[in-house]
Specification:
The protein is an alpha/beta fold. It has two domains: 150 residues, Medium-chain alcohol dehydrogenases, catalytic domain (Quinone Oxidoreductase, Chain A, domain 1); 150 residues, NAD(P)-binding Rossmann-like Domain (Rossmann fold). It is 25% helix and 26% strand. The chain contains nine helices and 15 strands. Strands 3, 4, 5, 6, 7, 14 and 15 form a seven-stranded mixed β-sheet that branches. Strand 11, helix 6 and strand 12 form a beta-alpha-beta unit. Helix 2 crosses helix 3 and helix 2 packs across helix 8. The longest helix is centred in the last third of the chain and has 16 residues.
Length: 339
């Protein structure tokens, strides 16, 4: 094992879009676990849009990352040393957090991973993004046969699963994505009924009208911005809006104007925000439900893999620009003890 730990540190808070200068790569001795702790060597690091919010010093559902502290992100890691009888060296676990090559974590926060599915899938389709989509549809959206569901960021880690769940419920599903290749994937691989390339259409309002002639019953919000403005007037009576994220607005320095909310009363709309950790029981439920679908290929997913912890800042900046295609993961290390 290397004697050094590499960490990506938050060097400064961004004003608007993050830049490489907001990060630094630092090296220090590998820490040693105390009683009840486990040292892991990171194999895979998840990068997700919510991390942009943690770079800012403002009130949120989680504390911001401190200047000089490592960026936070979920990892899959190999146990190197354990001071807890529940884990042994060589096991692969989920739950250590940090843009770091080595992490010490209390043992009760870690989940051992079974062999079978690729370990990186537990950061995506079988992990937090997949669970987010599952909880959103189970607890808020509740799609029904014949309804129309619009999914923003449809080729992404959350939207791709949410749309497939709506299809399983018998709904008509329309995706919105950022280029023709993504739209092709959404329709051909994920099985959506239609997909709008929001970067190519001249009139987003007209494109939504053509794709959703009977209105919209459920809108899965990952993006915000112009798309939200275009969707809102097309929501049907008793429509549901799942507020999962608004990545188009994460770099804004002042809030944008929202849609006119009078229709919430007139149409009896339900608008609900979602933080997946509010219902932690959904994680185990989803893994049990979805693992067989992943194994038999009936739940499709796509990963965007970037090699090297040192490349995490650039990959994250590209994520916020919509340049990734699928769930973004950083391959930090290789498993040393065999699959």
């Amino acid at each position: 094992m290397s004697d050094n730990r590499r960490s990506v540190i938050l060097r400064s808070r961004p004003k608007g879009p993050p830049t490489i200068d907001n990060f630094s790569l630092e090296t220090e001795p590998v820490p040693q676990p105390a009683e009840g702790e486990v040292l892991t060597r990171t194999l895979w690091l998840s990068l997700d849009p919510y991390m942009r919010g943690r770079m800012s010093d403002r009130a949120s559902y989680v504390p911001p990352t401190e200047i000089g502290a490592p960026m936070m992100g979920e990892t899959v890691g190999e146990v190197i040393e354990s001071r807890d009888p529940r884990f042994s060296p060589g096991e692969v676990v989920l739950g250590a957090f940090g843009w770091q090559s080595h992490i010490v974590t209390p043992a009760d926060r870690l989940v051992p991973l079974p062999k079978g599915a690729p370990y990186s899938a537990y950061l995506g389709v079988l992990g937090m993004p997949g669970t987010t989509a599952y909880s959103a549809m189970k607890d808020i959206g509740q799609p029904k046969a014949g309804e129309t569901v619009v999914i923003s960021a449809a080729s992404g880690a959350v939207g791709s699963v949410a749309g497939q769940l709506a299809k399983r419920a018998g709904a008509r599903v329309v995706g919105v994505a950022g280029n023709s290749d993504k739209c092709m994937f959404v329709q051909e691989s994920l099985g959506f009924d239609d997909c709008i390339d929001h970067r190519a259409v001249m009139d987003l309002d007209a494109a939504l009208q053509d794709a959703c002639p009977d209105g919209i019953d459920i809108y899965f919000e990952n993006v915000g911005g112009d798309l939200q403005q275009a969707v809102f007037p097309r929501l049907n009576t008793f429509g549901r809006v799942i507020m999962c994220g608004m990545v188009a607005e994460y770099n804004d320095t002042k809030p944008r104007p929202g849609p006119n909310l009078m229709s919430v009363v007139r149409k009896r709309l339900k608008i609900e925000g979602l933080i997946v950790t509010d219902k932690p029981e959904r994680f185990a439920e989803w893994r049990e439900l979805a693992a067989p679908w992943v194994a038999d290929g009936t739940l499709a997913y796509r990963e965007h893999v970037v090699d090297g912890l040192e490349n995490a800042p650039g990959a994250f900046i590209d994520l916020l620009r919509g340049h990734n295609f699928g769930k973004l993961v950083i391959r930090v290390g290789e498993l040393t003890r065999g699959q």
